[in-house]
Design goal:
Layout: H1 3-9, E1 13-21, H2 27-35, E2 39-43, E3 50-57, E4 63-68, H3 80-90, E5 109-115, H4 119-130, E6 136-141, H5 143-148, H6 155-162, E7 165-169, H7 177-186, H8 199-212, H9 217-223, H10 232-237, H11 239-251, H12 256-275, H13 286-294, H14 299-339, H15 345-362, H16 365-381, H17 383-395, H18 405-410, H19 415-420, H20 428-437, H21 447-457, H22 463-491, H23 512-531, H24 533-546, H25 552-555, H26 561-571, H27 573-585, H28 592-600, H29 607-615, H30 628-634, H31 646-658, H32 663-673, H33 677-705
Parallel strand pairs: 1-4, 1-5, 5-6, 6-7
Antiparallel strand pairs: 2-3, 3-4
Helix pairs in contact: 4-12, 6-12, 8-9, 8-11, 14-15, 14-16, 14-22, 15-24, 15-29, 16-23, 20-22, 21-22, 21-30, 21-31, 22-31, 23-24, 24-29, 27-28, 28-29, 31-33, 32-33
């Protein structure tokens, strides 16, 4: 088949549907079930909110495009997520679809994901979606959970009350997914809902609608002081009429915004009474019994600490054989490739630059994948929401609240998504404080550095001892964040603090496909960075360490290959720069090689490992190359003393705990705060604190315990 024929045979998307729902309603699970792997992820220009879209095959072979909008409780915008949802659904955001140049900016249909076990709360958002007059299908998710709770939902009665199709779905088992697609094809615009609203408000709506030339919904939104770009023109043009109508209602003791909310819930109460079979006595569910322990004021925190400790222990213990396999595989491949190439700069680039640099980082992929695996499983099970609730009592004492927990926890994978996750925090002060302390969380990029130093300098430690050191490093980062947050709480405006309201989802068995998808996505991002950023930096660093070449007669003065390698490295551009930097880092216990590594780590923290890998392998052409940990352990100063000591390792690990060493994170902070003031202040503060702490620790340690 010719390329033109293949293009012609591929059905173009004919329908654009938005997937909308509350947080924890199972929207992501349904999105994955609808689209499979046919997904694209990006950002809405102008805001750092994820934009996910995928293709779905409809009955008959047509293709629909599904836009997965952020979870929201309302179309009345407070956070950035809610703003994006409202603007996309109302057609006021011009970049609603990932494909550039598309004319269709507003979805043509809506799939409203509703948690059947929390029907009343979910229907508030649906009532607002039906006001949009778009074809709507309700995906009644978690019907199995509702039945387990003894509150089954009558889908037919719910559909009659809502005026649109209702499809019972169990997203994690793909039950009802095909029926959902068929209902989407047949969906038609839903009729307006007659809410039991106060007569005075109806009169003012009718009067204002006649002035606006609108059929009702915009008039009600304007009276309720609802924000929205689609209302700006009407608000500016008819400001006097709107204010007069609002004043008349206020004079009669009616708050338009509050009346709108109460009217919707009066209607929802009637719908729930018809559709939900309430039991005579509420059952004590599995979630209730588990929460009695996990949500306990004391035992809950103990269990949380035990879970985190077990997580770190498993990351070390389970990953070790896989890391050894990756290390051996990279070494074997490098040896074979090197053996097939002639001596010279190209062979040195491939073996000592690419394999030594990228390979040194890839060794830690198993640890990072396991970390993502455990975090994804905890999140999918419903436990992380409980952890956020437990931590609210702690965070509130340091000037944050429980909503900061998820962004801070996300920062353990990477500070960038953690900072982006702060968009769900309404209060400007809480959001800014969380952004500024998030980089203190131990991200996955630090993990290769910690694992290398702990494994190399505490080689005979058991898995739990190494895990204890790792846990202490994580705790040190958290402590630094706590102290910084306390300092910020004295400086930032307390008037912009936000309240903490959190929904606790039902416990469930983590969905294997969902967890593995998250692990794959996050690990792939790390490996991609190793294959792009770290590869490019490895080549540059190799060149700086390889050139200029030391003349042969000077190399001949050194009797051993190790001595020749050391001489060549010191003669290189990087060696000269390292020696120039050494006076600044020597008080911290670092030599020039570590100084070069710290500078290169500003591009990405894990580049520190690849820099050492290249530094200790450049010039070594033997096929029996020692691994990096052994090379570090055998490195000696001119006086014969060890370069790498436990005290040096402690100082170096504390530097990575405290210092801001990620250009990408600084760029995201600048974008989120709208100014370079905050990232530059963050850089100066974090690196200044890191230098002072490492200086004190190393100098005191050397005085009392020796270098």
């Amino acid at each position: 088949m010719s390329p033109a024929a293949r293009v012609a045979a591929t059905p173009a998307p004919r329908l654009v549907a938005a997937l909308v729902g509350n947080p924890n309603a199972g929207k992501t699970t349904i999105f994955n079930a609808l689209t499979g792997l046919r997904q694209k992820v990006g950002n809405y220009p102008g805001v750092t909110v994820d934009r996910r879209a995928g293709e779905m095959r409809l009955p008959g072979g047509d293709v629909a495009e599904i836009i997965d909008l952020p979870g929201t409780y309302s179309l009345v915008t407070v956070s950035l997520d809610e703003q994006v949802v409202s603007e996309v659904l109302r057609g006021t955001r011009r970049d609603a679809r990932p494909q550039a140049g598309d004319d269709v900016t507003r979805p043509q249909a809506i799939i409203a994901v509703v948690d059947a076990s929390n029907l009343a709360r979910n229907l508030f958002l649906v009532s607002q979606l039906l006001d949009l007059r778009l074809p709507t299908v309700i995906a009644l998710n978690m019907v199995d959970v509702a039945e387990e709770h003894g509150r089954p939902v009558d889908a037919a009665a719910l559909a009659e009350a809502m005026g649109c199709a209702v499809i019972p779905v169990v997203g994690n088992r793909r039950e009802g997914i095909d029926q959902l697609g068929a209902a989407l094809v047949r969906a038609t615009p839903s009729p307006p809902i007659a809410f039991p609203i106060a007569r005075e408000m109806l009169d003012e709506e009718s009067r204002l609608a006649a002035i606006l030339g609108d059929d009702g919904p915009s008039a009600r939104r304007l009276l309720a002081v609802e924000p929205g770009a689609d209302l700006d023109a009407l608000r500016a043009r008819f400001e006097g009429d709107i204010e007069a109508a609002r004043d008349r209602l206020q004079a009669q003791g009616i708050d338009p915004a509050q009346e709108d909310i109460e009217a919707r819930y009066r209607w929802i109460d009637g719908v729930v009474a018809k559709a939900v079979h309430e039991p005579e006595h509420r059952r004590r569910t599995t979630t209730d019994r588990v929460d009695a322990v996990l949500m306990h004021r004391f035992f809950g925190l103990v269990v949380f600490a035990l879970i985190m400790t077990a997580l770190f222990t498993c990351v070390f213990w389970l990953a070790k054989p896989m890391m050894d396999a990756v290390k051996d595989g990279v070494a074997m491949l490098g040896t074979k490739v090197g053996a097939s190439m002639a001596e010279g700069p190209l062979r040195a680039l491939v073996v000592d630059g690419i394999f030594a640099g990228v390979g040194a980082v890839l060794v830690f992929v198993p640890q990072i994948a396991l970390l993502f695996l455990f975090l994804a499983a905890l999140e999918d099970s419903g436990y992380l929401a409980r952890a956020a609730f437990l931590m609210d009592r702690v965070l509130s004492k340091i000037g944050l609240n429980g909503k900061s927990f998820i962004p801070l926890l996300s920062s353990f994978a990477c500070a960038i998504p953690g900072i982006l996750a702060t968009r769900t925090i309404e209060g400007r002060r809480d959001r800014l404080a969380t952004i500024l302390v998030a980089p203190f969380m131990t991200c996955s990029a630090r993990l290769p550095v910690y694992a290398l130093l702990v494994g190399a300098l505490i080689p005979n430690a058991t898995a739990w001892q190494q895990a204890l050191v790792l846990f202490a490093l994580y705790a040190a980062g958290i402590l630094a964040a706590v102290i910084t947050s306390l300092l910020l709480s004295r400086r930032l405006d307390r008037a912009h603090r936000s309240s903490f309201i959190l929904e606790l989802p039902t416990y469930k068995r983590p969905q294997v496909s969902q967890v593995l998808w998250q692990v794959w996505t996050n690990t792939r991002a790390f490996v991609t960075r190793a294959g792009t950023t770290i590869l490019a930096l490895s080549i540059v660093l190799w060149a700086l360490l390889y050139y200029p070449r030391l003349p042969a007669e000077q190399l001949a003065r050194h009797p051993t290959a190790e001595a020749q390698q050391a001489a060549q490295t010191e003669h290189s551009f990087a060696g000269r720069a390292g020696h120039a930097l050494e006076p600044a880092v020597r008080p911290l216990g670092y030599d020039w090689k570590m100084g070069v590594g710290l500078v290169s780590a500003f591009a990405a923290r894990e580049v520190f490992v690849s820099t050492l890998g290249i530094t200790y392998s450049v010039g070594n052409t033997s096929e029996d190359t020692k691994d990096l940990a052994q090379a570090m352990a055998s490195d000696r100063r001119p006086d014969g003393s060890r370069v790498w000591t436990p005290l040096v390792a402690v100082s170096l690990m504390l530097w990575f705990v405290l210092a801001m060493q990620c250009i990408s994170t600084m760029a995201v902070v600048r974008r989120e705060t709208g100014s370079w003031k905050w990232p530059l202040a963050q850089l100066a503060f974090m690196n200044g604190v890191a230098y002072v702490v490492c200086l004190i620790v190393y100098q005191i340690g050397r005085r009392f315990f020796g270098g």
